[in-house]
């Protein structure tokens, strides 16, 4: 019988997972001299599942021995049990054997790990070179998993494969037609350099030849995957539906939300939010361009509103936006510990998905939190839609919450503040953070406020089309868009285009993302709803006791809670 309490069991599981998944270790800032990549083959997935089952067994023994009686231990035990069970449900269903998509998949992890690795010394770059040489092996394991999925009739949809093929072409420096430059099949010849070549060229001169050779080896692995996806996998998955159905959707939504979502209620609520936000957008659009619709006002802002010229220039502008938020919010609305006061604005590597994103700091804060802007080849950046987005990605959004959790890793557990995080909690907080900045007056400019509302509307549309497409639900009869018809990806793209000021390539990328990650996109608005409900319940409880509600104190207590799923979040927040 184990004598470990739940937090010790959770951290032991994290340490074991880091040994199985060196990319996870790098993201946490541990084992930084390890140049391995994960085993993405079916055998590698089996090993991870075996570890999770053993951890659950240890947890049950610990609970039976009374080692989870302490409230902090009980909370960790509940989270660990729920997270491992949700992951194993996906494993048992074979979802890892069809993991193809434009945002989160093994192939994306294999590339993104390199920008998270230390790169200050020649020794650091030698580790990078070693990992570059392992790319073909890692991607071969990924191919084996997808091939096993085909054998079990667990296939990704063609739309996902096409999107990834396009990304791989960009990584390889190929043209828009997907054809390699002459001689590029063996890493020679004219044409654009590959992403790995460009990355390796940034290394110290002494190890640059080693890095260049390692980059060519990495490219060979990407090229082999590209060719296999195009020539073998794509034909094998023809006819696979985009819609995953209610059973798989619920399984995936549980992993992203930590809740058993009432999909029909969420779908109806998404429509209500869509109508509420649309009405508010019409009012703000009138302030920008009298007589204009919201879409007309956003088009006007794209063409004539304030914009930053140049990719590096917009990066600097975003950095100053976050630095100013830190200066304004610290001590007034939040208490920001020293390490949290540093966050870096970065430009996302070419070939990324279109949406901005955030990466959390390493556990020791040696690598700071970072926001990432995909430029999509653009050189002009209208700012009306960026301000609210960077409050979401940076301060007081993702960076504040995830860095605060990192700061509390020893108080909670390293597991809870890293892989125990739940998407809908974090995305809900980040969307709540945008709303908070509006409440605090930071989005008083009509253009920037329209950007905030456009972001809110996009998240409401996500609830509608993500559930609608995957469950093939009908559009309400009272809607002014194809009433009574069943949702398809084509209708969803049309609906999105009519109701968003985002560029077309962004909307195309988003649609692929929703189809490839069922249940992830709904977590933003459902999570925000939970955060708002928890705040109002806490405010009401304070009023009932005759106490003043201190929003700053509530925020800091809320940000110091263990990560919680939506089943547990509102009750916990209401008691603060």
From TrEMBL:
Pfam families: DUF885
Highest taxon listed in the record's lineage: Bacteria
InterPro entries named in the record: DUF885
Protein name: DUF885 domain-containing protein
Species per Swiss-Prot/TrEMBL record: Actinospica durhamensis
């Amino acid at each position: 019988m184990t004598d470990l309490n739940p937090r010790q069991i959770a951290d032991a599981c994290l340490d074991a997972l880091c040994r199985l998944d060196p990319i996870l270790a790098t993201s946490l800032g541990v084992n930084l001299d390890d140049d391995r990549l994960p085993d993405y083959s079916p055998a590698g997935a089996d090993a991870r599942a075996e570890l999770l089952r053993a951890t659950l067994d240890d947890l049950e023994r610990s609970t039976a021995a009374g080692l989870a009686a302490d409230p902090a231990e009980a909370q960790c035990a509940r989270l660990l049990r729920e997270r491992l069970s949700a992951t194993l449900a996906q494993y048992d269903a074979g979802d890892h054997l069809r993991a193809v998509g434009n945002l989160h998949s093994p192939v994306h992890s294999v590339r993104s790990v390199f920008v998270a690795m230390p790169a200050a010394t020649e020794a650091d770059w030698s580790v990078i070179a070693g990992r570059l040489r392992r790319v073909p092996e890692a991607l071969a394991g990924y191919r084996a998993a997808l091939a096993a999925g085909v054998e079990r009739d667990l296939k990704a949809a063609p739309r996902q494969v096409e999107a990834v093929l396009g990304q791989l072409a960009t990584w390889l420096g190929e043209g828009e037609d997907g054809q390699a430059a002459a001689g590029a099949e063996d890493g020679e010849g004219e044409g654009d350099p590959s992403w790995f070549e460009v990355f390796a060229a940034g290394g110290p001169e002494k190890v640059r030849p080693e890095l260049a050779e390692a980059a060519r080896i990495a490219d060979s692995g990407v090229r082999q995957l590209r060719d296999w996806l195009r020539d073998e996998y794509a034909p094998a998955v023809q006819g696979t539906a985009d819609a995953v159905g209610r059973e798989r959707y619920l399984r995936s939504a549980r992993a992203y939300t930590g809740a058993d979502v009432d999909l029909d209620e969420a779908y109806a609520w998404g429509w209500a939010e869509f109508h509420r936000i649309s009405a508010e957008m019409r009012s703000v659009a009138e302030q920008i361009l009298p007589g204009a619709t919201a879409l007309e006002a956003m088009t006007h802002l794209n063409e004539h509103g304030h914009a930053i010229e140049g990719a590096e220039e917009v990066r600097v502008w975003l950095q100053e936006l976050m630095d100013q938020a830190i200066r304004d919010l610290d001590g007034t609305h939040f208490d920001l510990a020293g390490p949290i006061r540093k966050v870096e604005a970065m430009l996302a590597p070419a070939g990324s998905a279109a949406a901005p994103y955030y990466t959390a700091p390493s556990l020791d804060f040696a690598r700071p939190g970072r926001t990432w802007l995909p430029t999509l080849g653009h050189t002009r950046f209208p700012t009306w839609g960026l301000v609210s987005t960077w409050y979401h990605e940076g301060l007081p959004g993702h960076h504040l919450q995830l860095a605060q959790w990192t700061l509390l890793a020893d108080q909670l557990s390293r597991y809870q503040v890293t892989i125990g995080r739940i998407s809908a909690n974090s995305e809900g907080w980040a969307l709540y953070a945008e709303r908070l900045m509006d409440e605090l007056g930071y989005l008083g400019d009509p253009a920037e406020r329209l950007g905030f509302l456009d972001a809110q509307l996009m998240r409401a549309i996500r609830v509608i089309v993500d559930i609608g497409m995957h469950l093939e639900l009908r559009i309400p009869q009272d809607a002014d868009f194809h009433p009574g018809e069943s949702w398809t990806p084509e209708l969803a793209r049309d609906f999105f285009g009519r109701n968003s000021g985002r560029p077309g390539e962004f909307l195309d990328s988003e649609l692929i993302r929703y189809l490839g990650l069922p249940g992830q996109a709904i977590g933003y608005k459902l999570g925000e709803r939970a955060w708002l409900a928890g705040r109002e319940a806490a405010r009401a409880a304070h009023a009932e006791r005759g106490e003043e509600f201190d929003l700053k104190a509530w925020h800091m207590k809320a940000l110091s809670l263990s990560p919680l799923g939506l089943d547990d979040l509102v009750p916990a927040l209401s008691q603060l």
